[in-house]
User: Fold this.
Amino acid sequence: MRKFSETQKLAEKHHGKAGLKALLAENLYGKTKSLNQKDDRFLSAMTQAVFSAGFSWDVIEKKWPGFEDAFDHFDPNKVAFYADRDVARLLKDTRIVRNGAKIQATIANARFVVETAKEHGSFSKFLKAWPTTDQIGLLEHFRKNASHLGPTGAMYFLRFNGWDAFILSPDVTKALIREKVVSKAPTSKADMKAVQAAFNAWTEESGLSQKDVSRTLSYSVGPSA
Assistant:
């Protein structure tokens, strides 16, 4: 594994020093929000990640105002107590994608948000308290407690809602393999621990956030990387 300064040079080779700086300053897709949100916004974003999995993000985005209305604007204290009649209503609602399993997952995730808020004061406080040096632990917490929110969906959910997350995109994975952090796309606990250790070392070396380390790795991939 090389020093991160060498990875930055690779990224600058492809995009230029000023170009890389501009890319890192971008708010990708205009989606990144602050951690200082109310619990309903976290449930909304979690639900959007769930419904987007295996589906077109654009279609879900266009339908989202309908989702907001159909799910009581994602008030977790309301959605958590949805009964069979609410599920039946949603399965007939043409404003949303009528997927029964994902509707049930939204109800389960509302309960997860409510229970987390009871324990920590709010979902925002819970995320703020979780150290960015242990993203794999947070992903495991979501795996155990959230519904239909896989590792990739959870990473995007965290990134777009203000938590300092790395994302294992195809290019980031290529860079991790190039740097011999892993030999293939990381899925095992051992590989994920190696990935976390690498990100922690690179953030300490560079002074960058985990997000910007992740994006720099992505931008470092190219014909000569």
User: Anything to note?
Assistant: DSSP finds 13 helices and no strands in the chain. Residues 100-120 form the longest helix (21 residues). The chain has two domains: 4-28+166-219, 39-160. The chain has a mean pLDDT of 95.
